[in-house]
Structure formats: C-alpha cells, structure tokens
Design goal:
Elements lengths: L12 H16 L30 E6 L5 E6 L6 E9 L5 E12 L2 E10 L12 E9 L2 E4 L2 E5 L4 E9 L5 E10 L2
Antiparallel strand pairs: 1-2, 1-10, 2-3, 3-4, 4-5, 5-6, 6-7, 7-8, 8-9, 9-10
Length: 183
C-alpha cells in the first residue's frame, strides 16, 4: 500500500495543479538505493511518544532540496503539546518555490505531523480546512518514522528528511533532504 496525500478535492483547478506539480517534483528526485520512508498497514497503531523524544529536531537546518536548490527547515521548541516548523524550498535563482507550515503534535499518547503547502505568493495548495497528516509508525533515539515521512539524525549536526510522493500517474518516489544545523 502506498500513502496518498489528501490534497485538493478531485476535479478542482487546484487538484489538477497539485497533481501536475507533484508529478513534476517526482521526476526531479533521483531514485534511492535504500528506502528511507515506511508505510503502515491499514489501521496501524501509533507507538507511545512525546515531543521530548524529538528535542534533537529543534533549531534551524539548511541544505540542498529539489533539483539541488537550497532548502531550509526550522523547528521551534514545543509550545504545550505542539512544535511548529517551517520548510522553505528555494528556486535555483534564490526565490521561493514553495513553503510548508508544519505542526508536530502530541495526540492520543503518540505524535502526528500535520502540514500545509503554500506557493511563493502564499496561495495554499490544500483546500482551506484540509492538510496532510502523517501518523507516527516508529520512534528511535534520534529518528521518527511517520507514515510516508521520516525525520532522523544523519551524523553530527545533521538531519535527513524523506517523504514518499505519489504522482498523478501512480508512480511512487521519495524526496530526500539532507540538512546541516545553522545553530
């Protein structure tokens, strides 16, 4: 089974744009020798976890994103049961290609990562009340495996983020981002 994004509603203009854009992104990502993401069985149960398990993620991270263009990910310390994060994918010319606004939340004794995408002009990809949600599959020291998304340490002062994408033609690819700490 492959995770699908719960993106724009079928038939809308945003729906066609979203899937065309994702298809383009997947063509830009090189295939990996080893798969970084995991997929849970239907109705999997998330393991116990808290935001304290991801304290290593707090900070600013910079690296190479899609097509080798710069990308930045930032995570704030928890505010109650939520950590807020942002992701910025730049274009090769230095402008913003798109951003993500992320919430890493404690929920039902475990963790879930929710996010929304935005174009450079702040136009949202998902419908107003829709978002992508990644439930926790597994947790290890310095690694969190969500359904179709992985966050893990990648050496001293480095992290790796991988997300599984399914394009409109049903092909599945992983986008992998490697970041160094700016702290």
């Amino acid at each position: 089974m492959t995770a699908r994004y719960s993106g724009p509603r079928k038939g809308s203009t945003m729906d066609r744009f979203f899937y065309a854009f994702i298809a383009g992104l997947t063509l830009l990502a090189a295939p990996l020798a080893a798969q970084e993401t995991r997929i849970g069985e239907d109705d999997f149960e998330s393991p116990p976890a808290t935001l304290a398990d991801l304290d290593w993620l707090v900070g600013q991270w910079h690296g190479t994103g899609i097509s080798g263009a710069p990308a930045t990910e930032s995570w704030l310390p928890p505010t109650g049961p939520t950590m807020v994060g942002t992701f910025v994918q730049q274009r090769a010319d230095g402008g913003i290609q798109f951003t993500e606004h992320m919430y890493l939340m404690e929920e039902d004794g475990s963790l879930v990562l929710r996010l929304k995408h935005f174009d450079a002009d702040l136009t949202g990809w998902e419908e107003k009340d829709d978002m992508l949600a990644f439930r926790l599959l597994g947790i290890e020291p310095c690694a969190a495996y969500f359904n179709a998304l992985t966050l893990r340490c990648d050496g001293e002062g480095k992290i790796m983020v991988a997300v599984r994408m399914q394009s409109a033609d049903e092909s599945v690819r992983e986008l992998v981002f490697r970041f160094k700490s700016l702290n």
